[in-house]
Each structure stands twice: as C-alpha cells, then as structure tokens.
Design a protein that fits this description.
There is one protein chain. This protein has ten helices and no strands. By secondary structure, the chain is mainly alpha-helical. The longest helix has about 35 residues. Helix 1 packs parallel to helix 5, helix 5 crosses helix 7 and helix 7 runs antiparallel to helix 10. The chain is about 80% helix and about 0% strand. It has a single domain, classed as MetI-like (MetI-like fold), CATH 1.10.3720.
Length: about 220
C-alpha cells in the first residue's frame, strides 16, 4: 500500500471522526425532542431531518453549495471575512455531518423512546431537576443506543460520495477520500489493485462499525428489559 493510499485512508477516517463528534450533541438534542416533545411542526422537522436519507446525495451537495458557496446565501457573507466552507477539509466535514445526521437522530430517538418515563418521574419526585434527570437517568439508560447511532453515523461518513464531491470536490491530497479515489482510479486502466485495496479497507472498517452497532443495539434492548 502506497503512502498516498495511507494518507487518503487517514483523511477519510479523520473526516468521519470529526463529523461524528460534531453530530453527537445535535443528534442527542434532536433525538430527545422528537422522542419526548410534541412541538408545533414536529412532522415538518422530522421530514427535514430525514430528507438527506431519501434525496440523491448529489442534490444534497448542490443545495449545500448554493448555501455555502462563494456566491451562496451564507457563503457570500463569509467570503467577505475570508472564511471558505467549500472545496476544503471543512466542506468534507459539513457534507458528512449533513448526510449522516439522519441515521444518528433516528437511532438515538428510538433509544430515548425505549426509556420508560416512569424512571424520569421518579427522579423528579426525589427532587432532581430536569437537567439532572436527563444526564443522570435518561441519557445513561439510552447510552447504548446513542453510541450505536454514532457508530452508524461514522460508517455513513466513511462511504459518503455524492455530497462530498459536489461540495468539497475531488482534489488530490486535500479533499480526496477513499470513495473519491476509488472512483478516480476506476477510470484509469491498470489501477485495479489500488481500487481493490481501498475497497477492502473501506469494507473492513464499515463492517466493524456495523457489527459494533448491532452489538450495542442488542445490549440496549437487554438493559431496557
């Protein structure tokens, strides 16, 4: 395996890790709101969150580009203070967060829904505040599901292609991830071994993440029972 391939693998893993860390508090907040609150426009919020799951990734990337590009609604203003959110590492992370967030939110929401509200009510009667109850009762009981959601988010980030190539480009040494390098080398005759190695590494990492997620999901069901 070449140094270039190792660097691309590391970049892909780093993007997935950073996007997962960023997604964690957002997913927990949204998952809890959807599981516990009846807010106005809840179905609209659910639809917006789930949209990247059903929309073509390229469409998601294009919408992000319209929003964050140099002439975009937000990007135009950020560009005036020399902040660029496209065709760089930040763009890789943004694309990964957007496409992986729905998986994390759905899994974490299910984890909170499995926590019996009776435990929370018991905590309130003992004098605990809502904040203390959340961090000392609700979140610990839902923790296996939360971790499972983050692992799925990580695995989704590893394989992201459409939104990434649209928002971050396919710049060798800067924004080229495993998926993008596989795509590039598929167009070059004689580079089949490079493609095979990268595909194998990607599958191994993804399989490990999925197995860990399933283990935690089963553990969560056992703990709730």
């Amino acid at each position: 395996m070449s140094i270039e391939e190792i660097q691309i693998i590391w970049l892909t893993v780093k993007v997935a890790l950073v996007s997962t860390v960023i997604s964690l508090p957002i997913s927990i907040g949204l998952g809890w709101i959807l599981a516990r609150k009846n807010i106005p426009g809840k179905h609209i919020l659910e639809g917006i969150i789930a949209l990247p799951l059903v929309a073509p990734p390229v469409v998601t990337g294009y919408l992000l580009l319209l929003l964050l590009g140099k002439n975009g609604f937000i990007g135009h203003w950020l560009n005036q203070i020399n902040i660029e959110l496209v065709f760089n590492f930040v763009a890789l992370v943004i694309a990964s967060v957007v496409v992986s967030l729905p998986l994390a939110v759905r899994t974490i929401r299910s984890a909170f829904e499995l926590v019996d509200p009776v435990y929370e009510k018991a905590s309130y009667t003992l004098g605990a505040s809502k904040m203390n109850t959340f961090f000392r009762v609700t979140l610990p009981m839902a923790l296996p599901g939360v971790v499972s959601g983050m692992i799925l988010s990580f695995a989704r980030s590893l394989g992201e292609f459409g939104a990434t190539i649209t928002l971050a480009g396919n710049i060798s040494g800067q924004t080229q991830t495993i998926s993008l390098m596989v795509y590039s080398n598929m167009q070059i005759p004689g580079n089949e071994m490079v493609v095979t190695r990268l595909v194998a590494v990607s599958l191994l990492i993804s399989l490990g993440a999925i197995m860990a997620s399933e283990y935690l999901k089963n553990k969560r069901k056992y703990l709730i029972k």
